[in-house]
Design goal:
Layout (H helix, E strand, L loop, with lengths): L4 E2 L2 E6 L5 H10 L3 E4 L1 H9 L5 E2 H5 L14 H8 L6 H6 L7 E5 L3 H6 L5 H6 L4 H11 L5 E3 L5 H10 L3 E2 L1 H26 L19 E7 L9 E6 L11 E4 L5 H14 L7 E6 L2 E7 L3 H11 L1 H4 L2 E5 L5 H10 L2 E6 L4 H7 L6 E4 L9 E6 L2 E6 L11 E2 L7 H14 L7 E5 L2 E6 L5 H15 L7 E4 L7 H9 L3 E4 L6 H11 L2 E4 L8
Bound molecules: the ligand NC(=O)c1ncn([C@@H]2O[C@H](COP(=O)(O)O)[C@@H](O)[C@H]2O)c1NC=O.
Ligand FAI binds next to β2, α2, β5 and α8.
């Protein structure tokens, strides 16, 4: 890489004109000659800043409604010409070097996402000359500087002012990488959009080719196990309220498992809106969940479900964490990650006493990842996210006995928790507290047994509790076992061949049972 290079001539061609005029004025002051395309040149000229039209340089008018403006050897030769190698050929053809390209592309992503855009509008927003120039300038980073985003302008000008108008090799290279990333994302948007169209031109959810763009947030010390390498990437524009929008306020470096478990804890807790909730996660499963009047009470009751598993857990809240809550948690147990939308100053000051505890802040937001992906051998499984919720009105009472109002409240709570427990999932709950959680078993009846064992170990009382099952009971044995444990009401999807046998069992035992008609497998 060569050293700092003086900017003498710049080409400005921007769709997004944010910051254009101050930039053009500053470049002019630094003695840089400005070239520009139609609309950009007009804006600069109207601001009284001297500028030359590209068409004057190419000796060709812009034509075809802007489809052809800069696709010319006088432009690309000016960007691609190598210092010391191409000087003679440039002189022979009268090609003047262009040292700086400031360019951003037609807004394809915005226009194609707008339901009011016509297909012709969308096609016209496929930028051709822009990506070509970005590639030329970025390829020639040894001599040329490129800027694709208004957020880069100030730092670039500062560097030029501090170096008599020159830009360092490191900046040129960094900006070139940004430019190639920008073009890659742009082309992915076009490819995803066009390859999602069906024979009638209607966009489908899953394109024929999927091109993803993620940006690295950080390298991780290792993956799920120490012999695996790992890194964390996020969407280019993360959805507000999702894990990738976290700020780490303190604590040790986050690990791969911390992030995976934090996602499970946060997604589960943020679904509760009516009152403070706490979710404690271990190995991607909630081991204790509760809703109560305060964050502290919610934590106390979530912890009660399974104090053994809560050790070293991820603890997430849907409300601010105050001093009492932080102090109770940190004085009592080892915690890997604490997550909340906010923390009081006193709570944060207390957390600092346990400097290793990772404290994450995730602002609330209603967004959800639209698509879930899972890697399988040389393939990718894609599905829409499991965002289906069930209202009380949708429940179908299938037994002679209907649930009481309290049972109904607890059934809805247990159902929301079961959605976040790995299948087969069984959740026992009472008074908005998990009493026992049976997760990840290959048979439903064993998950039920485990939920019972957990409750017993924690000294919680199962008789009088309700039970949620993420999928239907294939046989009556699950209901028989629940009744024997003292469960009084059941929520499950229904839909088994033997539903009648299962309903008969519930009636025999005097249980109330409701069907949701919705299944929540989670693998
Ligand atoms: N066709 C071309 O030669 C061409 N050269 C530059 N552009 C784009 O034209 C836009 C700027 O246009 P204007 O200066 O007229 O507002 C930029 O987004 C730039 O990427 C072009 N437009 C589309 O392909």
């Amino acid at each position: 890489m060569s050293d700092a290079i003086q900017i003498r001539r710049a080409l400005l061609s921007v769709s997004d004109k944010t910051g254009l005029l101050p930039l053009a004025a500053a470049l002019h002051e630094l003695g840089v000659e400005l070239l520009s395309t139609g609309g950009t040149a007009k804006a600069i000229r109207e601001a009284g800043i001297p500028v030359r039209d590209v068409s004057e340089v190419t000796q060709f008018p812009e034509m075809m409604d802007g489809r052809v403006k800069t696709l010319h050897p006088m432009v690309h030769g000016g960007l691609l010409g190598r210092a010391g190698l191409d000087d003679a050929v440039m002189a022979e053809h009268g090609i003047g070097a262009i040292d700086l390209l400031v360019l951003n592309l037609y807004p394809f992503a915005r226009v194609s996402a707008d339901p009011n855009s016509s297909f012709d509008d969308i096609i016209e927003n496929i930028d051709i000359g822009g990506p070509a120039m970005l590639r030329s300038a970025a390829k020639n980073f040894a001599r040329v500087t490129v800027a694709v985003d208004p957020s880069q302008y100030d730092a670039l000008l500062d560097e030029m002012r501090a170096n008599q108008g020159a830009v360092s090799a490191a900046t040129r290279f960094k900006h070139a990488v940004t430019a190639f990333n920008n073009v890659a994302f742009y082309d992915a948007c076009i490819s995803n959009y066009l390859s999602s169209l069906d024979a009638d031109g209607k966009p489908q959810l899953f394109p024929a080719q999927n091109n993803s763009n993620f940006v690295k947030v950080m390298d991780l010390r290792y993956g799920e196990n120490p012999h695996q390498h790992a890194a964390f990437y996020r969407d280019l524009w993360p959805v507000p309220g999702t894990l990738a929008t976290f700020t780490q306020l303190q604590g040790k470096e986050l690990s791969y498992n911390n992030l995976a478990d934090s996602d499970a804890a946060w997604e589960c807790v943020r679904q509760f809106k009516s009152s403070p909730a706490c979710v404690i996660v271990k190995h991607a499963n909630p081991c204790g969940v509760a809703q109560n009047d305060t964050a502290l009470q919610a934590y106390e009751r979530a912890y009660q479900t399974d104090p053994t598993s809560a050790f070293g857990g991820i603890i997430a809240f849907n409300v601010e964490v105050n001093l009492d809550t932080a102090k109770t948690i940190l004085d009592r147990q080892f915690v890997e990650v604490l997550i909340a939308p906010s923390y009081s100053d006193e709570a944060l000051a207390y957390c600092r006493k346990k400097a290793n505890v990772r404290v994450l802040q995730i602002p609330h937001g209603d967004g959800l990842n639209n698509i879930d992906v899972k890697r399988v051998g040389s393939g990718l499984l894609m599905q829409t996210q499991d965002i289906r919720t069930v209202t009380v009105d949708e429940l179908k009472v299938v037994t002679q006995l209907a649930p009481t109002a309290e049972q109904l409240r607890d059934l809805m709570f247990a159902w929301q928790v079961a959605k976040f427990v790995k299948s087969n999932a069984i959740v026992y709950a009472k008074d908005l507290q998990t009493v026992g959680v049976g997760a990840g078993q290959m048979s439903r009846v064993y998950s039920a047994r485990i939920a019972g064992i957990k409750a017993e170990d924690a000294g919680l009382v199962v008789p009088g509790s309700v039970m949620a099952s993420d999928a239907f009971f294939p046989f009556r044995d699950g209901i028989d076992a629940a009744a024997a444990a003292g469960i009084k009401a059941v929520i499950q999807p229904g839909g088994s061949m033997r539903d009648q046998e299962v309903i008969d069992a519930a009636n025999e035992h005097g249980l109330a049972m409701v069907f949701t008609g919705v299944r929540h497998f989670r693998h």
